[in-house]
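Blackboard transcription, Thursday session:
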Amino acid sequence: MKSIVYLVIGIFFGIVMLKSEAASWFRIYEMFQFKAFHMYGIIGSALVLGVIFIQLIKRYKIKTFNREEIIFTNKNKSILRYLLGGIIFGLGWALSGSCPGPMFTLLGAGFFPVMIVILGALLGTWFYGLLKNKLPH
Amino acid sequence: MDLINQPIPWYIAGPLIAIIMLLLLLVGKNFGMSSNLRTICTALGASKTCDFFCFDWKGQRWNLLVMLGAVIGGFIAVKYLSGGNAPEINQEVINELKSLGFKSAGNNYLPLELFGTTVFSSVKGIIILLIGGVLVGFGARYAGGCTSGHAISGLSNLQLPSLIAVIGFFIGGLVMVHLIFPLIFPLIF
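(Written on the board underneath:)
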């Protein structure tokens, strides 16, 4: 039963990503050219509501549907890993025009060459695992 | 019901993404798609090569289901909801892309030069997509998250590390689009 819930949330996410054009390479390019408000509008409005949701959960100690506590873990403090990792991610995001969610949506949408991007992303994740201890964090 | 065939405007899409994040919190999970890449690596046997992949990947089954849903959602959007048409991007952007050699700009959801099926027989195209993917996968794990984990979940929770990561995303994206694209694409196309 719970499996269906996750699947439905994913389907909903996929439809929103594709139909809002957030999965379009062109929209990503346009965003980095500052030539349209579209992507900033999506991320900005998601954030405004997202901040409100999380503040409400914290203030009113809202529980999960199973009546368990919702725990937010603070991310480890560091600058280097977030900045360097972020820059590397950004280079790839602009080049491939896809981030780790939409790349799967594009596959379902029938843009099969995105399989090469997914293969690359898996390789990149693996390379990180291999090099992790040698990288500054 | 013509509305269903229209693209989703930003002011609907953003709140829907926030609701997706909220739903995942309410079922006791966190919104973050790039961890699926690590899970798949582990499921494929990467744990034999290093400790980073030694974890019980079956505990991440729920996120793989979200990912599978994202695939199905893409299929439904194109098949039944008229998704996948060319976005109405800025005309100046179309002109710039055409000067870089992207002839398909303005007429397609994705550039055919990179995502048309002919790319499978183009070594240059495959290399571009592969490098793009490697950077995304490597960068997401190094930064500890991607657009969903940092830009949405992390920033919504007012996490400074996520802000640093998102600034990084933009530095990388701007360098790629403004400095690297003009170098590579005129050579490729």
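Lecturer's comment: The CA atoms of residues 28 and 96 of chain A lie 9 Å apart.
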